[in-house]
Design goal:
The protein is built from 14 helices and 30 strands. It is α/β, with parallel strands linked by helices. It has a 19-stranded mixed beta sheet. It has a five-stranded mixed beta sheet with strand order 4-6-8-10-11.
């Protein structure tokens, strides 16, 4: 019976290793105590992950020194076992979080471990040290080519206080099998070192360079370290994707590249040239002033420049006031917190997904000149309370209106210095002297209020501003107390029911000859997802639902208006 229960231990070693690779690290370690067989399987598992946090705790210096010694002995023994038995290492990950002083003491051991891994034909190597900062001159681990120059290496990930030695500029240094190179917060001795390394990777397919630095021995203090200014990539026939962040000038000439992600340093003007990347499928630009990159008609010619482009994402970019985007192939478009844009026109007949997120003050007008009948539109705002009156105008100007089926909203109060905003008139439409909108008003199917952070005394003003000039068919509020307070949910429930009874009595901005939609409210149906979309019958029932809710609850309450 026991043998039957342990049939799994009789499986081939490769299958048992595959089982371990699918388990969380903690569970994989636990298998080593099951039996002698499983202990051997774990010791020869070709995916090694060593982290000092698992062995070194905060304690007295004497105790900490002993913990470091034990940690170093453990790492050495694990790697020596592979070397002595002639076993291959598929992946080796080393993560160190010690202080600068302690790290300097163990750098020779790191050299030895990396050499052992290279001798065992390591395929993936990941070395993660504490993050290097511009104003932090702390000593880095100096990486020598001989330590990691393994013919078997196809993926190299380096992050933190790692400094590329000048030996990497030697023409004889090559990474003939490297397909993936990821560098984050590392330091180079020469501005052109990264280009030299990349040019000696003939099979490279994916490159990541995030906030890398260059050492300037002539500088004083924190000026000895500065962000890399430029990077150029050309002649890389296999290159499929790049992720570049924190570099001021970027030039990419790769005929087969499909994906570009570029995040600029928002404090510096940036330039990027990728016009020759005609095979591009996905483009993401972040923290950029678009006028430094393109003319105002650049987005009109996407189809001719990039005939295969299917995904375009602009994040935290400063735009032109009027943007026209035209592409016959584009399928996904995302604009997140793009400022200074007043008008957006989109001519994309095959677009399937449009995402627009904004946390600013002034909302643009958005029009689709052509689009697919399968287009999914997702709009999300994070607005201060006094600016809520703009939502009605936004809904009215969204063309065609039938596409805007849902809108997600987070409401935040003014900062103390902007309290005067609360006293401003909020009932204007197109100018301060126009009458409020009359029935019928523009409508959408669903409004999702994700969070409300506001003082109770301003709830009534908030609701009047929120529904000025437009009407959702369904309003959903999060029941998570950390998102929408119980006090606001109770107020909103009371306000809707009383408005229905009073037929617009609580509307504070109507004139005798101009009635808002509050006056036409006939019925409100309230349901909650706390207990399988149960109907909320009265105020007492609502209070009982709100009691006992915690910040981990994802339930919501919905108000369907007629």
């Amino acid at each position: 019976m026991d043998e039957k229960m342990d049939e799994i231990s009789g499986l081939p070693e490769t299958l048992l290793h595959d089982i371990l690779s699918r388990l969380p690290k903690k569970d994989a370690i636990k298998t080593s105590v099951l039996s002698k067989t499983w202990r051997e399987i774990f010791d020869t598992f070709p995916i090694l992950s060593i982290c000092d946090r698992e062995s070194i705790r905060r304690s007295s210096k004497r105790k900490k020194d002993q913990q470091i010694k034990t940690f170093l002995d453990y790492g050495k023994q694990r790697l020596l076992r592979f070397s002595e038995q002639g076993l291959a290492i598929k992946e080796f990950k080393l993560k160190l979080s010690l202080t600068c002083y302690d790290l300097q003491l163990i750098y020779p051991d790191v050299d030895q471990w990396l050499k052992l891994a290279s001798e065992c034909d390591v395929q993936t190597l990941k070395l993660c040290l504490p993050t290097l900062k511009k104003d932090d001159p702390c000593l880095c681990y100096i990486l020598h080519p001989g330590v990691i120059e393994a013919r078997s290496l196809n993926k190299l990930v380096l992050k933190g206080r790692i400094r590329f030695d000048k030996e990497f500029l030697n023409p004889s240094v090559k990474f003939s099998s490297l397909c993936v190179l990821s560098l984050s917060y590392v330091l180079f001795d020469d501005e052109g070192a990264i280009e030299h390394v990349i040019s000696h990777c003939p099979l490279i397919e994916h490159i990541t360079s995030k906030w890398c630095y260059v050492y300037n021995p002539q500088g004083a203090g924190d000026m000895q370290i500065s962000l890399m200014k430029s990077v150029s990539m050309h002649g890389l026939q296999k290159l499929k994707g790049v992720d570049i962040q924190g570099v001021q000038n970027v030039y990419i000439d790769a005929p087969n590249i499909e994906k570009i992600y570029y995040g600029a340093d928002s404090y510096e003007p940036s330039k990027m040239n990728f016009d020759s990347c005609g095979n591009l499928r996905a483009l993401t630009l972040m923290n950029m002033k678009i006028e430094f990159l393109f003319t105002d008609i650049w987005f009109l010619h996407l189809s001719s420049k990039f005939p295969f482009l299917e995904s375009l994402e602009l994040v935290e970019c400063s735009m032109y006031e009027n943007i026209n985007i035209s592409s016959s192939q584009l399928k996904a478009l995302v604009l997140s917190n793009c400022s200074t844009m007043d008008k957006l026109e989109i001519d994309t007949p095959n677009l399937l997904s449009f995402r627009y997120y904004y946390a600013g003050d002034d909302l643009p007008s958005i029009s689709f000149l052509s689009c697919s009948n399968r287009l999914d539109v997702n709009v999300r705002f994070n607005m201060i309370h006094p600016r809520l009156y703009q939502l009605g105008k936004f809904v009215k100007q969204f063309k065609p209106q039938k596409l805007l089926t849902s809108l997600s909203l987070s409401i935040r109060p003014c900062i103390p210095s902007d309290e005067s905003f609360y006293d401003h008139e909020y009932y204007f439409w197109e100018d301060p002297y126009s009458l409020p909108p009359t029935l019928p008003v523009p409508s959408i199917k669903n409004l999702v209020i994700r969070s409300v952070r506001e003082d109770k005394s301003k709830y009534s003003l908030l609701v009047n501003r929120l529904f000025y000039g437009w009407c959702p068919e369904t309003i959903s509020l999060s029941l998570n107390p950390s998102h929408c307070t119980k006090a606001f949910i109770e107020f909103f429930y009371w306000w809707l029911l009383e408005t229905k009874k009073a037929k617009g009595k609580f509307c504070s901005y109507c004139y005798p000859k101009s009635k808002c939609w509050f006056h036409g409210l006939k019925d409100v149906k309230v349901t909650s997802s706390v207990k399988n979309d149960v109907n909320v019958v009265d105020f007492v029932h609502l209070k009982s639902l709100l009691c006992g809710l915690s910040s981990s609850d994802n339930a919501n309450i919905s108000f369907r208006l007629k």
